[in-house]
Write a structure and sequence with these properties.
The protein contains 1 helix and 11 strands; from the N terminus they run ββββββββαβββ. The strands form 2 sheets. A 9-stranded antiparallel sheet has the order 1-2-3-4-7-8-9-10-11, with no helix packed on it. A two-stranded antiparallel ribbon has the order 5-6. Strand 1 and strand 2 form a beta hairpin. It is elongated and about 65 Å long. It has one domain: Porin (Beta Barrel). It is mainly beta.
Length: about 200
């Protein structure tokens, strides 16, 4: 469910909520390399989340954006979560297994500056956190989640887009992503990309 209010100058405020049912069946197909014990049971959970988005126009089409999202089991809706919403550990003994939804939060801030009708530049930073430290400490995650569960993502991007006409765009973007796991491992990725699009 989403509520949005559009201001006359192009600014907007939006708030949305989601509730979702999750389940997994601890079953195996013949030939699978199974870790842990298969009990054939179905484990269920509930995911929920909320998101607030703000666009504040400064002048012309230039604007700030702000977004914050938080919830449990909403990995499908947040890019960095890679679809991971819950944790199920089949290595635990029968009767001790749980299907836990992961708490997660995201904060992003950005600015889009329109130099003129053809050129605009966008810059943004974001932090995405998963509350997986406790889950990692409770279980022997290193058996099958080395180097640990994802814990923090920091993202930075800057791009410039050129639109010589309404349906044609060219863009150049520099992107940096840092990640940290529950076991303290760190990773750094950088990307420089060029794109072009035409709307028919």
């Amino acid at each position: 469910m989403k509520l949005k209010y559009d201001f006359d100058n192009g600014s907007l405020f939006a708030i949305s909520v989601v509730n979702r049912d999750l389940q997994i069946k601890n079953n195996a197909v013949s030939g699978d390399n199974v870790i842990g014990t298969v009990d054939g049971r179905t484990y269920k959970g509930t995911g929920w989340g909320t998101n607030i988005a703000v666009k504040a126009v400064t002048y012309g089409k230039s604007h700030f954006i702000f977004g914050v999202a938080a919830g449990r089991g909403i990995g499908w809706y947040l890019l960095e979560a890679n679809g991971r919403s819950s944790l199920f550990d089949p290595t635990l003994p029968d009767g001790q297994r749980t299907y836990k939804q992961i708490k997660m939060q995201m904060l992003l801030v950005g600015y889009a500056h329109y130099w003129n009708a053809q050129w605009n530049t966008n810059i943004g930073v974001a932090r995405f956190t998963l509350d997986t430290q406790k889950l990692s400490n409770e279980r022997n995650i290193t058996k099958w989640y080395e180097p640990g569960l994802d814990k923090i993502f920091d993202k930075f991007l800057i791009n410039t887009i050129y639109s010589p006409e309404e349906n044609l765009q060219f863009g150049l973007e520099y992107y940096v992503l840092k990640r940290k796991s529950t076991l303290g491992y760190r990773g750094l990725g950088q990307r420089l990309q060029f794109g072009a699009s035409y709307k028919f």
